[in-house]
């Protein structure tokens, strides 16, 4: 019974964190806005790869080291903040190209790196995933499979949300304004991560 309760808490926690707005979800919504659902869905593979590597590195390699060198987590947060600030500037700059032949889109590389540096990966590895996850291959595989089964539909929802903002009924909100607001959101995430790193 305790295992069932622990599994339920784990799955619920993962779902809630994946649903929470953040840099990766903002980029997925932008991809849905610029590419449409069908063309944006393959980006979920790059989101999964980013989280997979991030969670695995933190859980298997860096968590034990961080106990002796806590500055490693701070360094990751600073890198994440810097990359998101850069991405925010690029997203704002490219907003003027929307619906033109020069339109820029969210690339797999941008989404992968943003997810790899997303502080949620640190949270998943050190807080949300059960303590025994990284001690045995069976536990690790089961946890990552459960994580992937939640990530794909939730990521698809964020893509769908971005695509829905292109609907005619929402024509009073221009895609350019939406992308600029997304840029501001990414900038705010960058500032928050930087603040968390130094406080």
UniProtKB/TrEMBL annotation:
Transmembrane intervals: 41-62, 69-89, 109-129, 141-161, 181-198
Main location per the UniProt record: membrane
Compartments where located: Cell membrane
Lipid bilayer topology: Multi-pass membrane protein
InterPro entries associated with the record: LeuE-type
Source organism superkingdom: Bacteria
Pfam family of the protein (one): LysE
Keyword field: Cell membrane, Membrane, Transmembrane, Transmembrane helix
Protein name: LysE family transporter
Species in which this protein is naturally found: Herbaspirillum lusitanum
Lineage, top ranks: Bacteria, Pseudomonadati, Pseudomonadota, Betaproteobacteria, Burkholderiales
């Amino acid at each position: 019974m305790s295992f069932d309760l622990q599994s339920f808490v784990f799955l619920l926690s993962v779902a809630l964190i994946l649903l929470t707005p953040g840099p990766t979800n903002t980029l997925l919504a932008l991809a849905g806005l610029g590419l449409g659902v069908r063309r944006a869905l393959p980006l979920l593979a790059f989101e999964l790869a980013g989280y997979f590597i991030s969670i695995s590195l933190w859980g298997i390699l860096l968590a034990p080291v961080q106990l002796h060198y806590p500055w490693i987590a701070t360094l990751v947060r600073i890198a994440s903040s810097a990359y998101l600030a850069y991405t925010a500037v690029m997203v704002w700059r490219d907003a003027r190209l929307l619906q033109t032949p020069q339109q820029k889109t969210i690339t797999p590389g941008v989404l992968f790196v943003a997810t790899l540096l997303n502080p949620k990966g640190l949270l998943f590895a050190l807080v949300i995933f059960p303590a025994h996850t990284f001690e045995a291959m069976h536990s690790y595989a089961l946890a990552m499979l459960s994580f992937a089964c939640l990530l794909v539909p939730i990521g698809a929802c964020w893509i769908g949300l971005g695509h829905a903002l292109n609907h005619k009924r929402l024509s009073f909100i221009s895609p350019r304004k939406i992308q600029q607001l997304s840029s501001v959101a990414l900038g705010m995430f960058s500032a928050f991560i930087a603040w968390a790193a130094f406080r």
